[in-house]
Amino acid sequence: MARPREFDPDEAVTKALEVFWQYGYEDASLPDLLDGMGLTRGSLYKAFKDKKNLFLLVLERYEIATVNAGVDLLSNQQIEDGSDRILLLFKGLVTAVTEGDHRGCLLCTAAAGSAAHDPDIADAVHRGLNKLQLAVVQALKDTPALSGISSAKRQRLADTLLTQYMGLRMLARSRLPLGVLSNAVQSVEELLRDAAG
């Protein structure tokens, strides 16, 4: 008869997310993970097979919790003007950093490291980024001032905004002065206004 697990796998993945978010995939050592998850080596490998499989579960959890929250904001029809949704997304980042959250973006960290060469990890990163990109495009479609722009211009603008947002999420880890982030948000506001003109 198999012995029952003495831990909650779901909770263990949540704890692993925090470890990977702090250290990144490559730099999260086995001792870091065991300590952060409160598991023994045997329990970790029995439940999750290996570090990569655990990281894929973490990326899935991050997508559900964090990426989907951004998508929900960008798709929120109760905020009628899509540009307001986009600005709220950027301002939310500044607020999080102001309140001490310097973790940045786990997808960005994964994309910037050597783990991105792994096809499974790359697919997980692309899936999350693609979700955000599509939501930005939708928010731009829902911006009355931009109703006259071509779909190609809208796509370029969405790509620029996504790049700006991801870059700011990475800069949040560097603990740059808040003025840098605030200025970037102001630039996004100007970018949206200029695109409408």
Structure description:
This protein is mainly α and 197 residues long. Helices cover 76% and strands 0% of the residues. The chain has nine helices and no strands. Helix 7 packs across helix 8 and helix 8 packs antiparallel against helix 9. The chain is elongated and about 60 Å long. The relative contact order is 0.12. The model has no long low-confidence stretch (mean pLDDT 92).
Rg value = 19 Å
Kindly estimate the percentage of residues that lie in beta strands according to DSSP: under 5%
Number of strands: 0
Helix content: over 70%
- The N- and C-terminal alpha carbons lie at a distance of 71 Å
Average of per-residue pLDDT values: 92
Structural class: mainly alpha
Shape: elongated
Low-confidence stretches: none
The profile of the biggest β sheet is: none
Helices, by number, come to 9
- The succession of helices and strands, N to C, reads HHHHHHHHH
Chain-wise SSE layout:
Blueprint: H1 9-27, H2 30-37, H3 41-48, H4 51-74, H5 82-98, H6 106-112, H7 119-141, H8 151-174, H9 178-196
Helix pairs in contact: 1-2, 1-4, 4-7, 5-7, 5-9, 6-7, 7-8, 8-9
Summarize the structure.
With 197 residues, this protein is mainly α. It has 9 helices and no strands.
Which features would summarize this protein structure in a list?
197 residues; mainly alpha; 9 helices; elongated
